Amino acid sequence: MPKLKHLLSPIKIGKMELKNRVEFAPVTDNFGIDDYVTDRMIKF
Length: 44
Fold this sequence. Notes:
Radius of gyration: 16 Å
Number of strands: 2
Oligomer: single chain
């Protein structure tokens, strides 16, 4: 994986430093019911 050699290394974006370059974009999973956390949401 020579092309991905920096994937798990830290990166600094402005004043914020992330411990690696793998991030999960914000998404809506629609697993909650009436604004409550469900077991399905926790497992996700």
